[in-house]
Amino acid sequence: MNKYIPYNITCPLASCSRSNTCARYANYQKAKAEEASFMVLNTDLLQVEGEGCPYHLVSERQRWARGFSRLCKSIPSGNAKYLNVYTPFTQRRFYKARNGEFPLNPQMQADLLEIFKERGADLSLGFDCYEEQDVLVEK
Fold first, then answer.
1. Is 47 left (phi over 0), alpha (psi -120 to 50) or beta?
2. Which residues of the chain have pLDDT under 70?
3. CA separation for the pair 1, 3 (Å, rounded)
4. Does this model's pTM top 0.90?
5. What is the pLDDT of residue 70?
6. Pairing state of beta strands 129-138 and 57-66?
7. Would you state the pLDDT for residue 5?
């Protein structure tokens, strides 16, 4: 059975004990009322037992960051050379991330802060700005 199910797949199981908190079930109800066609989990293959549904999605508010130019400037000059090599970004993507052109999820923030800590940056400066985003997570 395919364990990874894309987040846009809906779930029609109203009998599930967790359907009242599940984003998949909420999306099913919305799609049923508004859409001519949509994708649904195969209920014949679902093995939902009690509270252990592996497909349960909830909407969670997360704090995403944009830009880390202040952190880069706080690194002592001897440790700042080739900083982009130590990050998970390509050189072009590194400069876009540094300038805040796209948001960084909490895991990426933690990874970058660890790299800046190793290089001697002042972590109290934090990222350039933060924004709240609603994200679907499996729980």
1. beta
2. 1-3, 49-51
3. 6
4. no
5. 95
6. antiparallel
7. 81
- The answer to whether 3 and 53 are in contact (CB under 8 A) is no
* The predicted structure's pLDDT at residue 43: 82
Closest CA to 126 of 74, 85, 84: 74
What is the structure's pLDDT at 18? Answer: 86
| DSSP symbol at 84 | G
Q: What one-letter code names the amino acid at 57? A: L
Residue type, 131: E
Asked if 106 and 63 touch (Cβ cutoff 8 Å), the reply is yes
Positive or negative, the CA dihedral 21, 25, 29, 31 is positive
Secondary structure string (H, E, C) spanning 93-128: HHHHHHCCCCCECHHHHHHHHHHHHHCCCCHHHCCC
What Å distances lie between residue 9 and 26, 37, 46, CA to CA? 11, 12, 13
Per the listing, tokens 């948001």 go with: 103
Q: Which pLDDT value is given to residue 1?
A: 46
Helix or strand or coil: residue 92?
A: helix
Q: Is 61 within 8 Å of 132 (Cβ atoms)?
A: yes
Residues 108-122 pLDDT 10s: 999 999 999 999 999
CA 135 to chain centre: 6
